Amino acid sequence: MIKRYLLVVNLVLCCGNLFAQSVPKWGGGADQSVQSFGFSFSYVSSYFKIDKNPDWRKPFIDKEGLKVADSLNSISSPNSVGFAVGFLYRYRITDHLEVRTTPSLVFADRVVNYTYTNASFNTSRTVQSTSVDLPLGIKLKSDRIGDFRGYILGGIKYTQAIGTKSNADANLAPIDKHLKNIRGFGSYEAGLGCDIYFEFFKLSPEIKISNSFGDVMLHDNNAYSSPINKLGLHTLMFSLYFE
159-186: per-residue pLDDT in tens? Predict the structure, then answer.
C-alpha cells in the first residue's frame, strides 16, 4: 500500500514539473525601462543594381580620341560580403511599439565586373567603401511568449562614406580609372527578428534588407562609369543585437 502511495506522489510531482511554466527571464531589465542601450555585430552582403545607358556596349573613346576599351558584352555586380559593428539606442512608445536607432561602422567593398568582346580587356572594379550608417526605424513587437517574442521593423537610413577621396585616381592611366560612389545617400530598409531573453541581457537575431534611393554612382568620364546610367545599392544584413 505504501508503495502505491509513493508511486502516486511521484506521478503527481512529475506531472507538475511537466506542466509548470518556468519563470520568464528578466532580460537585464531592457523591457522594463523606457529607453535602453546595446551593441551589435553584423554580417553584410551587398551588390549593385545596374541600369545601363542605351549605348552601353560601344567602345570607350577618351577626350584625345584614343580607344581605351573594346565593345562590352556584359556588366554585372556579384554579391560581396563585409561586416559591421554598431551601437543601439531604443525608446519604448508602448509595450509593442518602439523607436530605435542603430548607428554602425560598415566595412563592405562592392565589385562590378566588365566583360568585353576582346577578352583581354575583361576586368573588375572594386568600389572600396568604409561608411557610417545612421538608421532610424520603427519596431513592432508581438506578445512575449516565455523567453521569446518576434518583431518586424521598417525605416530609413543615411549612409556617409569615410576615408575616401573622389580624386584618388587623378594620376592614373585611363584604363586604370576607378568606379566610385557618391559620399552620402539615403536608403529604405525592412526586416524581421526575435528577442530572446536571458538572465542579464536580451539577444536579438535579425535579418534586414535595404535599397538605396536614386543613384549612388559618382559620374566620371571614364570607361567604367560612362556605360552606366544609374547604380542602386541592395544590402542584406544579418545582425546580433545585445541589449
Answer: 999 877 667 777 788 788 888 899 899 9
Grid coordinates in use for 11? Answer: 506521478
Residue 161 contacts by C-beta under 8 Å, 6 or more apart in sequence?
Answer: 129, 130, 131, 181, 182, 183, 184
| Set of cell numbers at residue 136 | 532610424
**Residue 236 to residue 239: CA distance in whole angstroms:** 10
216 falls within a domain: yes
For 15, other C-beta atoms within 10 Å of its C-beta total 10
pLDDT attached to residue 228: 95
CATH number at residue 179: 2.40.160.20
Q: Could you tell me if 237 and 137 are in contact, meaning their C-beta atoms sit under 8 angstroms apart?
A: no
How many Å apart are CA 236 and CA 232, to the nearest integer? 14
21 in any annotated domain: no
Residue 65, domain extent = 26-242
Q: Are strands 228-242 and 80-94 parallel, antiparallel or unpaired?
A: unpaired
**Structural domain includes residue 130:** yes
Q: How confident is the model at residue 23 (pLDDT cuts 50, 70, 90)?
A: low
pLDDT digits (tens, 9 = 90+) for 201-239: 899 999 999 999 999 999 988 889 999 999 999 999 999
Residue 111: what are its φ and ψ, rounded to 5°? -125, 140
What pLDDT is recorded for position 29? 78
Domain membership flag for residue 220: yes
Q: Is the pLDDT of residue 14 over 50?
A: no
Number of domains in the chain: 1
C-alpha cell at 154: 521598417
